[in-house]
Design the sequence.
């Protein structure tokens, strides 16, 4: 999956890239650089899990 697709998935969930980066224990700038290259399947699955978790937290507020 390309970085643009990952970014689109994050934005589609109503989240910001920095929120996902924070959950991954990365700095926003490092995550932004990481978006320049394709993600493998395990990274995509990790990000999807984070998106699900953050979305659920956002809905419960």
Sequence:
């Amino acid at each position: 999956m390309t970085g643009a697709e990952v970014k689109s998935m994050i934005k589609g969930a109503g989240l910001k890239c920095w929120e996902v980066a924070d959950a991954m224990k990365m700095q926003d700038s490092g995550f932004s650089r990481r978006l320049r290259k394709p993600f493998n399947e395990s990274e995509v699955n990790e990000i999807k899990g984070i998106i699900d978790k953050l979305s659920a937290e956002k809905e419960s507020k």
Observations:
- The mean pLDDT is 96.
- The chain has four helices and no strands.
